[in-house]
Design goal:
Layout (H helix, E strand, L loop, with lengths): L3 H8 L18 H16 L3 E4 L5 E5 L5 E7 L12 H16 L8 E6 L12 H7 L4 H5 L9 H7 L16 E9 L4 H4 L4 E7 L2 E9 L3 E2 L11 H19 L2 E10 L5 E2 L2 E9 L3 H22 L2 E10 L2 E2 L2 H11 L3 E4 L4 H5 L5 E6 L15 H18 L1
Parallel strand pairs: 3-4, 3-5, 5-15, 6-14
Antiparallel strand pairs: 1-2, 2-4, 6-13, 6-15, 7-11, 7-12, 8-10, 9-11
Helix pairs in contact: 1-3, 3-12, 8-9
Bound molecules: (2S)-amino(hydroxy)ethanoic acid and manganese (II) ion (2 copies).
Length: 395
């Protein structure tokens, strides 16, 4: 019987940047292909039936027939991400099965462990690409045409990984699954404040990603008078500061975490700046207001700078209220608090097709999407025990 801590240690070096301790596990990259091999090995070691749908979502099945309980999470990461966002859910799923089987538990219906492909959307820009494709939340045509920063399409990346992109799209396995329970490291500090090792998700905030494109006039950094400039970097800078002010004033969240400056020359005024806005709010109306206010500020800055701006949505995720019956049943059975999250998850996408729930494991610092993301080994064990209890309760 292996604990989730032991299984996590097996993944420790895969895609790890020794200079930061962070992880680079983009979808269809070498690290995630190695992680797929690990997943296949973990399934084989437990006699679980391994399968993969046309979108790259991997499954390890215990038992046969319809009405399965799905557990698991994802193994890809954001650039320089932490060790737990995703992998904690997958390793805890295998560890929970191990502990149940060690106790002689036999589920009344199949239990399936999932490794969802490209949850972070870090490479192709759309979050939860594997579960969106499987549920029809995005069409194969638009997904396969998505390009990464090098211009490689998802179709090309899948082909290079030995997959057939023509198989991408709505998946048959959805008809055989009746609920999904995803365990995930908490990305925040609620459980610390509530002195609880495990929590149950109540909701996911609506959120999305927009590409801000600012066009100006490339020119010489030394020869161009300040009064004669149309510098897109200034418009971008004003927009970032405005986004922070608007988000603070409205109690929502706005982040510019990715930036591309063209041509990126030290002694040239840029001609164009592309920047990516991640905006999240407690309601759809608040999110709309937040993004509109940021665009308005960008346009005002552009008027002053003599530049032009556009803001294009790239990945939009509606708010999710987790199935009230299921979350209440788990919170009661586990004696765990309910808490909302500002982070998106595959469980959010699948909630459109079946009752889903999430279990959160306490994160002492709350930090995530950064190398220092952590959880205490005892809390990780508590998460596995909670997941095992949830499986007993549901399967
Ligand atoms: O970005 C998110 O909310 C999630 O971690 N993919
Ligand atoms: Mn994440
Ligand atoms: Mn995640």
């Amino acid at each position: 019987m292996t604990s989730a801590n032991t299984l996590l240690a097996e993944l420790e070096l895969i895609g790890r940047d020794p200079s930061t301790g962070g992880y680079h596990r983009p979808a269809w990259g070498a690290a995630t292909l190695e992680l797929r091999e690990w997943f296949a090995g973990a399934a084989a070691a437990r006699g679980l039936e391994l399968s993969e749908d046309g979108n790259g979502n991997q499954f390890a099945r215990w038992g046969s027939g319809p009405g399965a309980l799905l557990i698991g999470s994802h193994l890809d990461s954001v650039p320089d991400g932490g060790p737990l966002d995703g992998p904690l859910g997958v390793t805890s799923a295998f560890a929970a099965l191990d502990s149940l089987r060690a106790d002689g538990f036999v589920p009344a219906r199949p239990v399936v462990v999932a490794n969802f492909s490209d949850e972070e959307g870090a490479r192709f820009g759309v979050a939860c690409l594997g579960s969106r494709l499987a549920t029809g939340a995005i069409t194969p045509a638009s997904a396969l045409a998505l390009r990464d920063d090098t211009g490689t399409t998802l179709a090309e990346a899948m082909t290079q990984a030995g997959r057939d992109p023509r198989a991408a799209g709505p998946a048959a396995w959805l008809a055989e699954v009746s609920e999904f329970v995803e365990l995930h490291v908490e990305q925040g500090r609620s459980l610390i404040h509530q002195d609880a090792a495990v929590g149950v998700a109540s909701a996911i905030w609506p959120h999305g990603r927009w590409r801000l494109e600012v066009c100006g006039q490339g020119n010489h950094a030394g020869a161009t008078l300040m009064a004669d400039r149309h510098d897109p970097m200034l418009t971008y800078a004003a927009t970032v500061l405005a986004a922070r002010r608007v988000a603070i004033e409205s109690g929502q969240r706005a982040t510019f975490g990715k930036l591309a400056v063209h041509p990126g020359s030290t002694n040239s005024i840029p001609s164009r700046v592309d920047a990516w806005l991640d905006a999240r709010a407690e309601s759809e109306a608040e999110l709309e207001r937040l993004v509109a206010a940021i665009l308005n500020q960008a346009r005002r800055a552009a008027d002053l700078d003599g530049t032009t701006v556009s803001l294009q949505p790239e990945s939009i995720t509606a708010g999710v209220t987790f199935d009230p019956g299921l979350r209440h049943r788990l919170a009661t059975r586990l004696g765990a608090p309910l808490l909302p999250t500002g982070a998106g998850h595959d469980a959010g996408i699948l909630s459109a097709r079946m009752p889903t729930a999430m279990l959160f494991v306490r994160n002492p610092t709350g930090v995530s999407h950064a190398p220092s993301e952590s959880a205490e080994p005892d809390d990780i064990d508590a998460g596995v025990a909670a997941l095992a209890l949830a499986i007993r309760e549901l399967a």
